[in-house]
Design brief:
By secondary structure, this protein is α+β, with helices and mostly antiparallel strands. Helices cover 23% and strands 25% of the residues.
Length: 248
């Protein structure tokens, strides 16, 4: 009975609207529009406007309750990346030019070919151990993924790897084999990951974690945790086979 009353009231209201629309604008009103409007009335869920306050309260109580949104748990942090020698990009190089730094009595300035389009400019604190004439043509290992930094005004982009005694009384170049290719990356068996970026090396202070495990063995071979530095032509060795020395 309630639905019949609703339909009647709705029809009367719509008829009134249609009559008013026709009177106001007979050229724009369409009978089809009126039919379409009536057909779209949802008798299965009549509006509380026609059913009274009691029905409105009933419908509100029966309305499906909104489900509370579940809070998304915070994302779990990934595992801390392993920092080992594979993060270092150590390359075979050769010094093509060297000169004494004009303002620093401990520094050499060098140009080193490591297989890139242009030679690397690197400053090394080796004047107490080598003469400048000894450097040109010297084959070396270069730690290449370091950011450029100025050493007494000279932009140094990388580090020449050397073996040294704990007290610093002896320092020697770590040399690649004669047949190793310029630009070849030094590998350590069991540590085959991709090198870190220059920013990552500095930001994560990787050298602090890796350098303590770089040493020469009793034969003067450079190692990481006793595993040799290797090229395609063989291991890398301290120039005069300085044994049990730190490598940096």
């Amino acid at each position: 009975m309630k639905y019949s009353t609703t339909f009647f009231c709705a029809s009367v209201a719509l008829a009134a609207q249609a009559t008013l629309a026709f009177v106001v604008s007979p050229h724009t009103f369409s009978r089809a529009a009126l039919v379409d409007t009536v057909e779209n009335i949802q008798l299965t869920r009549p509006s509380p406007l026609f059913m009274g306050e009691e029905y409105a309260v009933e419908q509100e109580n029966n309305a499906p309750k909104k489900q509370k949104k579940k809070k998304t748990p915070p994302a779990t942090e990934g595992e801390t990346p392993v920092i080992d020698v594979s993060k270092l990009d150590i390359r075979v190089g050769v010094i093509t030019k060297a000169w004494e730094h004009e303002e620093a009595d401990k520094l050499f300035c060098e140009e080193i070919d490591i297989g890139e389009a242009e030679p690397r400019q690197i400053a090394s604190g080796l004047r107490a151990y080598y003469k400048v004439e000894d450097l040109s043509g010297q084959r070396v290992l270069v730690l290449a993924n370091l950011k450029t930094r100025k050493l007494m005004g000279f932009p140094s982009h990388g580090m020449v790897m050397c073996a040294s005694t704990e007290d610093g009384s002896k320092v020697e170049f770590v040399e690649p084999p004669v047949d190793a290719k310029i630009g070849e990356r030094i590998m350590v068996e069991g540590y085959d990951g991709e090198p870190a970026t220059e920013n990552q090396v500095i930001k994560k202070k990787m050298l602090n974690d890796i350098f303590p495990d770089l040493k020469t063995n009793t034969d003067g071979v450079a190692t990481y945790k006793t595993v040799p530095f290797l090229t395609s032509a063989g291991p890398c060795v301290a120039q005069h086979r300085l044994a049990n020395a730190e490598v940096a």
